[in-house]
Structures
1.
Amino acid sequence: MTSTDQKRFSRLEYPVEGHFGPHGGRFVPETIMPCLTDLEAAYREAMLDEEFTSRLRDLLRTFVGRPTSLFAARNLGRAVQARVYLKREDLAHTGAHKINNALGQALLAQRMGKRRIIAETGAGQHGVATATVCALLGLECVVYMGEEDVRRQSLNVFRMKLLGAEVRHVQSGTKTLKDAVNETFRDWVTNVRTTHYILGSCVGPHPYPVMVRDFQSVIGREARAQIQEVEGRLPDGVIACVGGGSNAIGMFYPFADDETVELIGVEAGGEGLSTGRHAASLVSGSPGVFHGASSYVLQDDEGQILGTHSISAGLDYPGVGPEHSYLKDSGRARYLAADDKAALRAFQQLCRLEGIIPALEPSHALSVLPEVVESLRVTEAQEPLLIVNLSGRGDKDMDTVTRSLGVEL
Amino acid sequence: MNGILGAGAATRNTTAENRLDVTFRQLAGRSALILYVTGGYPDLEASRRILPNVAAEADVIELGIPFSDPVADGPVVQRSSHAALEHGATLAGCLESVRLLRQQSDTPIVLMTYYNPVIRHGLDRFAHEAREAGADGVIAVDLPSEEARPLAVALKAEGLHLVPLVAPTSTDQRIERAAKLAGGFIYCVSLTGVTGVRDGLSPDIPHLLERVRRHSDLPRAVGFGISTPGHARDVARVAEGVVIGSALVDLISRTPKSALETEIRRFAAEIRAGMAAG
């Protein structure tokens, strides 16, 4: 990566037509194109409106519970020979970072006069976050969820219903997150005049990747200030898991111009990259157009999108945000894959060492700590300073974990 | 085609005029019947067997390239796409179907596709092979005018038309931009929604057609939700083309393979009769 590229990255604050180099853009049916243009205009206007931004700030503080803490994980640090901090997004209301974006977009929808909200969900975290903010703001809420995920995440389905949302089971295709996104797009194409689609990750057509990044960047902004306050310096690296990539881009973006801070994304290696049963789009996919944007995607030789596998439903997605594709190509960030077993081990380790039950998604990020520490160590004496984004808490994963560990409750 | 594609878009000297242009000119005011079938559905062999019958009844054939994630399609086309893929349908296989049909029919063929299989194939290679097989145009469902230039250039170099979609939600400015890239005809999406069988016609149609006419002299074909001879009659009165897709695919899904040829011809004849009654 040349220094011009570095500068160029810092200027990608608002990419023209949503293009991040060759990635991004808008690849959607014509019917919703005008709506994307309107959304972009409304979004840019809102972010310049002090009334809108102060309402968002206020609700992030009083409703979501921000700022979330930056916790010095000393026991974990001793185990991996590094100074490790955890950005505690698991402590945000509803238990994950998803609500930062859901709240921002719901306020925007309200401002645009759209009273009906639709959303997709995989693990159910984004669905719960969306149902939550819709309850708060009095908006109608419909959440699409693959039949397979409904089965895997029955508790979150019940949560959404308690919050007043209608959960529609998606029976098409692989019956998981990618098909839930397809079905949400179909609803949007049909009801575009009255409905806003709260997309849950930094994927999809422009302006979603930019908008979701901006709403999630509160994570990295807080973490950057917090680490400087306690350590007096910037970290050597920040680590986050990547499915679509929203918690990662939210953590990475405020550090993007800090050249000494390495950005490390961790994808779901599933049963191992060589088995084909994984969800590592950046590590193992190729550029293509999927769900409205050009980006890395898992596809076959015919350009058909592949099914994926991960122990964590939140990472079980064949695409990834276009800005991550750009960060990969430019070399500014590097991406690794962690398999199911490694994630499960890191999950158990954090439970025991720190008294925190993480979600399986950030357990992938935790699992690469030894490898990252090794690559960043300059001298034996000086331990690397790292932040891991703990994007969500693990309560939702108890069923999966007990099954994986062969435990009967 | 307009000058928007610039000097880089060299046009291959194709000897014959594009079949779409010939067909619409020869219709001389009568509305074209455009029939959509999913390529490789119900399976490759049956699909190739029914295509000549579709070609005999239709003024234009739309051949769908199956895609794993068809976001603009309703349940009928979704199911047909998945079934076709499960039976091994590929882009190359669909082009081969075009080539086989071309040996016995001059009915214009438009390939209806999502963008990713085309990118994966390579834009220039796709355009070249599509022309060689005997296709006349391409509709890319998820490729709005903002992103369409690379494909438009590749198609133009081979003398193929890019048929754009416009929708009731399209602004006049968007319609104008789409019209500049367009060749053959303009596909007017009758409603805000996905493809599928509907009970009634969308009230948005006349206004959309009127707005399209202000920006283009090309034929206007109306599709999405046109399901019955009555619908076809009403649309034929106001538009230069009527697209029937899901209703035909639904018929194919309900018909035993041995009866497909006769059932398709019966269905198309009923639609034709409806259009003639207009």
2.
Amino acid sequence: MYDIEIKNISKQYGDVIALNNINIQVRKGEIFGLIGPDGAGKTTLIRLIATLLVQNKGEIKALGYDTISQFQEIRNKLGYMPGRFSLYQDLSVIENLELFASIFGTTVEENYNLIKDIYSQIEPFKNRPAGKLSGGMKQKLALSCALIHKPELLLLDEPTTGVDPVSRKEFWEMLSKLKNMGITIFVSTPYMDEASRCDRIAFIQAGEILDIATPDEIISNFDDKLIAVKSDNKYKTLQDLKTLNTLRYVYPSGEYIHYVDSRKEYSISGIMEILEQKGNTNIELKLIEPNIEDCFMKEMMVRANERIIH
Amino acid sequence: MKELSIKVSNLSKRFGNFVAVDNISFEVDKGEIFGFLGANGAGKSTAIKMLCGLLEPSSGNAEIAGFDIYKETEKIRKTIGYMSQKFSLYEDLTVAENIRFFGGIYGLNKNEIADRTKYILDWLKISNLRDVLVGSIPLGWKQKIAFAVSVIHNPKIVFLDEPTGGVDPITRRQFWEMIYLKSGEGITIFVTTHYMDEAEYCNRISMMNKGIIEALDTPENLKAKYSSVNMDEVFLKIARGK
């Protein structure tokens, strides 16, 4: 049973192709992550599912209803949190919440248990105008408003962009709780590390889906031998690695540099020796497991047929 | 002897009863990449505004490239560069027009602007984008161009406020290579970010929480001190500690 079925969807704005033949199926009760950078087409896809845009080609069913001919059915059962704060800035916290409840023919009291964990954190400020809340509080109010009519499906457009790591972690903990209440969640994010919080993810880049799988599958499908390198002077080491003629690709990744050789079989100590000859000191080299970002970057590079990152 | 680029002593800013920045002190060396981290609302933006000479402190002192943040704000503004996620370039001007505009703002003459325009287009290999409207350029590239423009006048210090938010992972790394290059040329980099892998690229990091600087050290030492495997963990421990 699928809560979202996206079939051969394409969307153009004038000459610009925002989405090119997208196919995704989201299962009931899962957290599905749409992972990709700014401009990849994430917002367009979410707006199509939310019945706010009309595609040029293909069809979408949300909760079994067609997004064009049966949009009214979908809107009653859908919770949507747009990327930009779209609540009424001059209404208070509680006024915004009551407004959303009454639009959907319910009351704050009726579904309070659903939003309790989130809303209780902003309840002390319930008489403050929404426009005067901090970023983190606005986010919590927007989520409360998206949930107040007890939706079966929740669409979240980059809920954690610009949010610090602590608040991001708390937000994902809240999403897990909502999932346990049986709500299907479709969420987009530019943060690769959030992918591991999802049941399944789709990588999206320049309007195309690069891969759809569970985070574990994506990592186990990565078949390159990935080497992490560290030294006293990471920038010099990076530049030196770029000059190797056996290089496939290399880029900095946090504390380490990630390096992949074009040969299938070779010894790591050979790379170590070359780096030493070039004057790098205190070198550490080890074979590692990729993270989600490594997998995404590889997909991007394979598509772009890019051998080296300049 | 190390040359100091930023010197902050007991700097505070109060808005009514609210203390946004609470008696912070630190120093940044010339050419250092200094990561200025903290949760939303920790006081980072207020501190940056004071250091750029845009907001008068309530108390304390600071020198930016040797200039006093009370009396020499005009000189500070000519000595620094600035870019952020929210504001970088004018979308309805072309790349070349943006370079000319900001070059003029930073006091470059016509010949200098022509030289620097060529330098930026060659550096980023974007001669083909010269007459393209900035609004039609993807975010990551826009941010790379904005960084190049923010150092067009060879400032002593450049302030980067979440410059890579939402940028794809490949372009984010290209951005940081640009930072490394300019740091190597002696420009001090003062940068904020929510990407904890980027925190690892900094020489030193300060972690701000509720207006005070809770920790300041190299990424290596911070990880050791907080028994953490990465900066994400350090951040969580500090921000949730109290």
